Hints:
2 copies of one chain form a homodimer. Chain A is an all-alpha fold and about 325 residues long. The first copy, chain A, has a single domain, classed as Farnesyl Diphosphate Synthase (Orthogonal Bundle), CATH 1.10.600.10. Chain A has 18 helices and 2 strands. The first copy, chain A, has a two-stranded antiparallel ribbon. In chain A, strand 1 and strand 2 form a beta hairpin. In chain A, helix 3 crosses helix 6 (about 75-100) and helix 6 packs antiparallel against helix 8. Chain A is globular. Chain A starts with a helix and ends with a helix.
Amino acid sequence: MTVDARKAQVIPVEASRYLDLVAGKLEATEKVFHRCLASDVPFVAAAGDYIFAGGGKRMRPALVLLTAQLLDRDGDEEVTYAAVVELIHNATLVHDDIIDQATLRRGRPSVNEVWGNSRTVLLGDWLYTTAMQMALSHGNLDVVRRLCTATLRMTEGELLSLESQGRAALSTQDYFRIIDRKTAELFAAAASLPALMEPVEPVHGKALERYGRSLGTCFQLVDDLLDFTALEDDLGKPVLSDLKEGKLTLPLILAMERIDAGRRRWVEWVLEDRAFHRATAEQILEIVHGEGTLDEVRELASGLAREATSELELLPPCDARDALEAAPHFVLHRRR
Amino acid sequence: MTVDARKAQVIPVEASRYLDLVAGKLEATEKVFHRCLASDVPFVAAAGDYIFAGGGKRMRPALVLLTAQLLDRDGDEEVTYAAVVELIHNATLVHDDIIDQATLRRGRPSVNEVWGNSRTVLLGDWLYTTAMQMALSHGNLDVVRRLCTATLRMTEGELLSLESQGRAALSTQDYFRIIDRKTAELFAAAASLPALMEPVEPVHGKALERYGRSLGTCFQLVDDLLDFTALEDDLGKPVLSDLKEGKLTLPLILAMERIDAGRRRWVEWVLEDRAFHRATAEQILEIVHGEGTLDEVRELASGLAREATSELELLPPCDARDALEAAPHFVLHRRR
């Protein structure tokens, strides 16, 4: 499948209208992203092409480019940072897939599945370092520092998630602590980077950080919902895969407090077995539907989407602001 | 064992005399190194303490500090960079140990052996990113860029090494291409970083890069020799472990071109089996002793040590220069 065909599948038509605002810059970002994956080490070049061809929603680059436009920046700098953010995102994905022993990513075999864990560890390192090297190219230290912090927080988030794996007693607080670092952090960084470019805009920067953080948290809640509700084909990976990886997400965390010990055992069995042996997928789905926690999580996600939008109120009204205001809506109603 | 006791074991008495020149700064580096391993994620804090307590020769920090003194720099900056270089070195070690499935490092169970591969992948990411974050703290972009390049080259070196694993037909050229990136690159960066500090000294910087590169190459040749000649106890890991990991190093590469097909098969068997099943360790040692390639490699290492020393001729004579001139001697005659 071509990148364009893949994108057409993942980006709803109504969102395309907003993305048209930064279409030229998104295209430039793709070029920079592809170019920086080049290497004289044959495996890196091959895996780089594979990752590029795999596409993706490019949400984080779009965030960088739209907030740059909102703040009236128009240069090469935001294009570089958009590519850097996508590089960092992909570096975390290849390492996370090793850890989760994931065999599928975006509907294709994962990098670790194709090339093995050893090469994939080093590819992740290479991607992270290439991202930093590119981020340095415009000489803006504050931007590089923000990206370093985001990368550190994401790594810590993944570690906290790993520590919680298999635990049936995860609290709502634990859950939000993990997804704040694992997912929301890079959204916050992406949305606020352009405020660190000259002329620096600290007040707008803070609002955009909060916007990105709410949007990222909303994104993760929806991601976790989709693991219960999506069709396998739509998602490019099996449903209920979180639970099978030993990860309890919000719909089940909320339900666990309310159900009887017998049904709690069903969940514990899947966490222990990492498979549906002693309890079935249907039984698990019955729990979240019965307790109504999918609807509750959707409600929480809606609240976060509204919070994100409200952060933009003090920013200058313009087409880019309209697009950023609409983004939470698309995140909320996405199907993959 | 305490860090001091461990260090006393690994640093020869005569070398200590030279290291006394930067004793205060080395101590400050240890403190910075230890402090930057702190984290609110319990595993990172525990693994950080474990790595710190494991000690190490701290050769790369010593290189940074001695060249800084040679160039008359005296501040906090070189201490930070010394700690950063040691952090990067340790990040590569923890990821390399995953890849090599190493169970021992510095005479103790490796991080992956204690905490498993998944956590160790993320710990490596955390160490790399913390290193970059610290490197940024003095606002010297050229230093951060040099460290990024070194990290990229090291990752590529490890990838090339991985690609060559199990290959019996490795050429001398392949070998040097790998060790230049895998080992010499960080020595070159460490030795030349202080020339990138204000006032920048491009000419001295180039000589120091070459010094570090020759010293690092020499260091790796000696490392590869020790894998044939050291006692297991001295090295903190089994002897002939390179071959058992499928890695052909220079003593065997040189011998392979000269021996008959029957003895070449011995080497190929160990590379295939990753164990001494069809050929014994004694048979392998017989090859390198019989062909005299250990002596040849030692001769090459001596040449590199002399080259390193000669690079310092144009630099101002002082105690630090004496120490840097003596360093190749210690690298050459080290026993671990």
